[in-house]
Design goal:
Layout lengths: L1 H33 L9 H25 L3 H26 L5 H29 L1
């Protein structure tokens, strides 16, 4: 039951924060630099697969170890690192190989990935501890 609560809490925090950031900051930033290259809507299947896969990684590498050691700060730190590595891999590779990718997109998204993952991992652990 604790694993389910941890997964749901982490996912809800992650999705809520990411939806707000994507709509207010990331979409306009990407639109400015990529313009017509962007889709008008979202491809739901790849998006859902990313979120499921990424939540598995967040739980495995950040949340579960912190929950087991009863150290929520460990989830925050490991989440920040995981987010930086994951988002950095995507952004820096994209910047290296795509003509219209801009350094500001990479910098903002890498920073966001680190903050988002750390806060979500920490928040999920805090909710799981409180409800279990």
């Amino acid at each position: 039951m604790t694993l389910f609560v941890l997964f749901v809490a982490t996912s809800v925090i992650f999705l809520a924060l990411d939806a707000a950031m994507l709509s207010t900051i990331m979409h306009p930033l990407f639109q400015r630099h990529l313009g017509e290259s962007l889709l008008d809507g979202l491809r739901l299947v790849p998006a859902a697969l990313f979120y499921l896969l990424y939540m598995g990684g967040v739980l495995h590498f950040a949340s579960l170890p912190a929950l087991r050691s009863d150290a929520p700060t460990e989830a925050l730190i490991n989440g920040v690192l995981l987010g930086l590595f994951a988002y950095g891999t995507y952004e820096l590779t994209s910047y290296a190989v795509m003509r219209d990718w801009h350094w500001s997109m990479a910098a903002v998204d890498m920073t966001w990935g680190a903050v988002l993952t750390g806060v979500s991992a920490w928040g999920g652990v805090m909710v799981a501890r409180a409800l279990s």
